Amino acid sequence: MRFYPASDQCMLVYLGEHIHLPAHQHVLQLFRQLQRRPPVWLRNLQPAYTSLMVTFDPCIVDHAAVETALRAYDHQHKTGRLRKPRLVRIPVCYGGEFGPDLAEAARAVGLKPAQFVQVHSSRTYHAYFLGFAPGFAYLGDVPDQIAVPRLQTPRRAVAAGSIGIAGKQTAVYPFTTPGGWVLIGRTPVAVFCPHRKPMELISIGDQVKFRPISPDEFRKLEAACPPC
Amino acid sequence: MPSLLVDVPGLLTTVQDLGRPGYGALGVSPSGAADPVAFRLANLLVGNASNTPALEMTLLGGSFVFSNSAHIAITGADFAPTINGSSLELWRVHKVSAGTKIVFGPTKDFARCYLAVAGGVRVPLFLGSASTHMLSGLGGFNGRALRKGDVLPLGVPTEDLISQRIPSASLHTLWPRKVLRVTDGPQIDSFSEQARHTFFRSKFRVTEQSDRTGLRLEGPAFRSNSDGEMITEGVPLGAIQITPSGQPIILFVEQQTTGGYPKIANVIGVDLHRLGQLRPRTDIRFERISLRVARALWIEQERLLSHPRQLFA
Predict the structure, then answer these.
(1) Is B56 a residue whose pLDDT tops 60?
(2) Which among A6, A15, B31, B103 is least buried, having the fewest CB atoms inside 10 angstroms?
């Protein structure tokens, strides 16, 4: 464990120095432990690939006290086990108007669009964390074969539900936002819905699999989805 | 039910409170008032709990009509508020009668002005908060900035007014400043001695591309030694990240919750509300202080704000 004060009210805890699953499992364990028994001074938790950012109330504790407490939480939890991850299946209509970059991305890596889709949809992804915007899950790892880099120029508006790739990461855009990821498809399912429990389609630690669907099925599912 | 009618919305007027901390794991940033100190004082003046929803105006105010008589307070930047052509003093309580139209203009000094009404503005809560999150279209009034014709229901005042006004002497310690105090960012070591020197010695200009998600600065370009090699991690409010083009962005209330740009420094807690009052084209500088001093300043400010009688005349 490596600690660094990120601000006068935040502590960053690094649980690994490169992205790999054991480091992330450690992040998840500490995160869940703190969520289950939140200390009075805790204000926010931001898990990521290999780190957990902990925001605290400086009227109650300082960085040294936070470090001591986090080490104790971590120590207690060495024996704990994580629950079996949930598998989330997400229907995706690839290419065409739904995935405007698919053809170009496939050409760039020397695959036919159908092969590209096959590679993307046969992998089971791990949800490392949610960040950027509400419900935006960073999924990995994208097979090297289709790990295309971000666009040179980000789009001003990416349609909600769009599936993007940025290197070894893939994600579903919950809202129409600006974005620079390579867009290969779109899901008709609401990614973040304040009237649903849980609000987020993908939670941290989930397993995610994409299922290719036709434009017809996209429209059917879209019509069947309750508005958020 | 008493209400507030939006006659002219202004440049960007939203319903805010003190935000929704604690949902980082959902990718939801806390949001909330850009100047939480001015916001809290507006509420305290009219006898509201400090987290009661109120209006935040940006650079150019709007005009609003009260259906019923009400007690109001205006704090933050001076947007030259008037009723029937006569100007209203900031930082004090005013009683307005039913049918009154209050008119705000362009700012005379800083970026954000707050209008609090005794009883508060009533909107549905999203994750426990009334604050508007523009990017996702959630919270606040229909998840968006106010438009002409919107009617905002008002709550019922619950308490007696605490005081008439806050004298300017009390405001002195809380006033906007152009030298922002910072502590070291987690990647400060990835910047050369020269780059750090430049950062702490230079003036930066707040650009027009600044909003509630972040303040984009213009100044000398400088780079980290490890561009693009960073693993994405959680980013605090007030983090100063250096983009590949070498320009700093200060992450603000509607920030992304995670990021992969190196962070050279972080604005300290007591100066965060001052970020909310920086207008485009303002020149700012950064002053490096210790975590210990930053914490002592925060505790002092919180004590002041939780015992408002010390502030009131």
Answers:
(1) yes
(2) B103
User: Which CATH fold topology does A2-77 show?
Assistant: Gyrase A; domain 2 (3.30.1360)
CA distance A133 to chain B (A): 5
- Residues of chain A with Cβ-Cβ distance to B257 below 8 Å are 46, 130-132
What angle in degrees, to the nearest 10, is found between the helix axes of B36-45 and B291-306?
20
Owning domain of residue B130: 3-163
Residue B6 host element (H or E): strand B3-8
pLDDT for position B227: 56
CA distance A195 to chain B (A): 10
Element (H, E) at B36: helix B36-45
- For residue B256, list chain A residues with Cβ-Cβ distance below 8 A: 131-133
Which CATH number do you get for residue B223? 2.40.100.10
Q: Are strands A87-94 and A207-212 parallel, antiparallel or unpaired?
A: parallel
Residue B229 reports pLDDT greater than 70 = no
pLDDT recorded at residue B228:
54
Task: Tell me the shortest Cα–Cα distance from A122 to chain B, in angstroms.
Answer: 26
The complex's ipTM works out to 0.94
Which helix H or strand E contains A177, and what residues bound it?
Answer: strand A177-179
3-state secondary structure of B173: helix
**Does B238 contact A at CB distance below 8 Å?**
yes
What mean pLDDT comes out for the span A153-167?
94
Residue A80 corresponds to which tokens in the numbers above?
Answer: 């704990």
B160 compared with B216, residue with greater pLDDT: B216
- 8 Å CB contact of B234 and A48: yes
The crossing angle, in degrees rounded to 10, of helices A21-36 and A63-77 is 110
Query: What is the reported pLDDT for B313?
Result: 63
pLDDT digits (tens, 9 = 90+) for B194-215: 999 999 999 999 999 999 999 9
User: Does B237 contact chain A (CB < 8 Å)?
Assistant: yes
Structurally, how many domains does chain B consist of? 2
**What CATH code would you report for A87-224?**
2.40.100.10
Best residue in B31, B136, B250 for a mutation probing chain A (most A CBs within 10 Å): B136
Closest CA to A28 of A48, A8, A42: A48
Averaged pLDDT of chain B:
93
The tens digit of pLDDT for each residue in B64-121 reads 999 999 999 999 999 999 999 999 999 999 999 999 999 999 999 999 999 999 999 9
Chain B residues whose beta carbon lies within 8 Å of the beta carbon of residue A134? 26-28, 133, 136, 138
User: Are B159 and B273 contained in the same domain?
Assistant: no
Contact A46 B258 (CB under 8 A): yes
- What single-letter DSSP state applies at residue B95? E
Supply the pLDDT for residue B162.
63
